[in-house]
Amino acid sequence: MKLGLDCFLERDYSLVEKKRVGLLSNLTGVNQSLQPTIDLLYQHSKVNLVSLFAPEHGIRGDAKEGEHIEFSIDPHTGLLVYSLYGQTRKPTPEMLENIDVVLFDLQDIGSRYYTYIYSMAYMMEACQEQNKTFIVLDRPNPIGGLNVEGNLVEEGFQSFVGLLPIPNRHGMTVGELALLFKHEFGYQCDLHIVKMEGWSRDRLHNDTGYAWVPPSPNAPSLDMALLYPGTCLIEGTNLSEGRGTAKPFEQFGAPFINGFELAQAINRLHLPGVIARQASFVPTYQKYNGTQCHGVHLHLTDTSLYEPFSSGIKIIQLIAERYPEHFRFNKPTSGHYMFDLLAGTDSLRRAIQNGDLTSFFTTSKKQSEAFLKQRSRYLLYS
Questions:
Q1: How far is 23 from 5, CA to CA, in rounded Å?
Q2: Distance between the two ends of the chain, CA-based, in angstroms?
């Protein structure tokens, strides 16, 4: 298998010859030998790399979630790094003034909540407005390209964790998403996709032969990525989602939970492809920092059967029912509940509060089926 990066360096660098190049990337932009895209382009005799653009977590991946990134100088190349996760998330005309073409090389995680794809959308919009070319160096969807699950983001619930109407698990590569964004959502830039070679939709990351480079500090493994379409919703509650532990989004809990009883209750749901085990942990930051929490660790037994979004929701509802005096959706300081922004709607929170998910699941199934048809025009791999 070859990444879009590899194909670009071997033959498609002609797309940028004699042009000034900007690069939107981070630590996940590496080749099979784990050499950074930044350095490979900077050293390439046919590529004139003049500036860098940093998404959430920074150009070298050392910033925590939600931490604003400042403009900086990359110490390895000496290039100026423009932040797209600070004062602005859309590149300004001044940032693109001395650039002819922007390359994008970021590893997405396959879930709607991840901000990298919205940094891509904003860059596409800016390139359209400033008449710049935008080139995506395509990478695999680490959780596969077959399964699609979840509801679409409703009008009024757009945010940087859900900017566009795509499902929670979209099953698309970043190159395919760029085509979707252009033709369905109006991001009409001059777009080129450098395709991968040898990737197929049924392949997970561990089938590619490439090392797992954590796309963010709390994404340490493929198991985390496979669980994330469901367990990310826990961020919007008063449960710890496992941040500040070795297994974020794989284990979760709170001081008020009995982990043994919860594991048994989850396993009685007979969720396909997963088993819950009692777990105790002490987060080192964020929720319950320094406080012992009890809960469960989810272990995947069959990734082809596991339905992360619906399973995560059923587990949250189960906890809400078992701990009504303690479980809470975190209240917003302003605007929407964070849970609603992650869910792309307030109907899921209300369904959990009412104890009946039937209508929500019916709607989300219809929406994901419609999305399957919509996305089919933009799939680059079989």
A1: 12
A2: 14
Which of 214, 217, 218, 253 is closest to 234 using CA atoms?
253
Phi, psi of 160 (to 5 degrees): -80, 0
Residue 320 tokens, joined? 């809400």
CA distance 316 to 26: 33
Select 222-345's CATH number: 3.90.1150.140, 3.40.50.300, 1.20.120.160, 3.90.930.12: 3.90.1150.140
Summarised one tens digit per residue, pLDDT across range 178-225 is 999 999 999 999 999 999 999 999 999 999 999 999 999 999 999 999
Partner residues linked to 134 by β-bridges: 102, 191
User: 353 near 283, Cβ under 8 Å?
Assistant: no
| 43 closest CA partner among 21, 24, 15, 27 | 21
> Tell me: the pLDDT tens digits for 31-80?
999 999 999 999 999 999 999 999 999 998 778 788 898 899 999 999 99
Please compute, for residue 160, the number of CA atoms within 13 A of its CA located in the half-sphere on the CB side: 15
Nearest to 122 by CA among 150, 154, 167, 82: 82
**pTM for the structure as a whole:** 0.97
Residue 133 CA to residue 124 CA, distance in Å, equals: 9
Contact 272, 306 (CB under 8 A): yes
